[in-house]
Amino acid sequence: MRLQVWEATIQQIIDECNREQKGADKTLMAWRAKLEKEPTLLQPYQIDEIVREVRQRLGTLGR
Length: 63
Prior knowledge:
Layout: H1 7-19, H2 24-36, H3 44-60
Helix pairs in contact: 1-2, 1-3, 2-3
């Protein structure tokens, strides 16, 4: 899977995680549910790749 295609979504998730007070885990769970539905209909392994990238970037931001 090419993550460059999902760069805008990844950045949106990161921004939301940084903005929300409820925590990154709840935000990521909500995004997992969104990505499983239409119009994306991503497979679980594809969602895992996106979430892994978001967590990695959040970790480098000091979260």
